[in-house]
Amino acid sequence: MKPKSVCLIGLLFFVVSYVLFSQGAKLAFFQKPIDFAHWFNLIGAVLLLSFNKVFPKNNLNTVASFLTALGVIAHIGLCTIDFIMWSFGDDDNARMQLSEHISNTPSILFPFIIIGPSLLFIGLAVHAANFIKTHTLKALMVILGAPAIGYSFFIMKNGIYMLLSCLLFSLGLALLLYRKEDSQPE
Fold first, then answer.
1. Helix 36-48 vs helix 116-129: angle between axes, to the nearest 10 degrees?
2. Which of 58, 63, 99, 162 is deepest in the core (most CB within 10 A)?
3. Which residue spans traverse the membrane (predicted)?
């Protein structure tokens, strides 16, 4: 399969996961027989690693590829934690105890909850920065969509804005993926 196709499939999986996440936390814990939201997110994140292969090779790409890879690793860890949380079902007490334990363990909290997963968005936004002069609007969709996802989730705690931010981010990446090389600046 071509890397561009893998990228598109990854974006599709990632967006579907955000559609499910936008429905609220309770939905994630009561999906049966499996936690579809986090499986889609995990598969999508891993497939997004293919963006490292499709964008121009330069120094900025090297940094972006490294950040994207770290972000994918962190997403794997985050999804693993979320699978464990999901496995508690309706046992809110057990979920709360695990959450408290993770919050008190900086070696898990920072790389897999707070900082690490953001690196996927940062890495892909840095990839998009390569196109700021030639495909300004598309690049800005990614660059602005990336922090908007985190802001809408952590600060606003609004699933709809999070989904809309993810759609903006993903659409920008898809448009950059199929950009015309001889295109004039937008």
1. 40
2. 162
3. 37-55, 67-88, 108-129, 136-154, 160-178
Distances (CA, A) of 67 to 72, 92, 106, 123, 141: 9, 34, 20, 5, 19
- Taking a C-beta distance cutoff of 8 angstroms, is the pair 128, 143 a contact? yes
* Residue 183 predicted with pLDDT over 50: no
Range 163-179 average pLDDT: 96
Q: With a cut of 80, say whether residue 94 has pLDDT above it.
A: yes
For the chain, give every domain's residue range: 3-177
Query: What length does the chain have?
Result: 186
| Distance from C-alpha of 141 to C-alpha of 70, rounded to nearest angstrom | 22
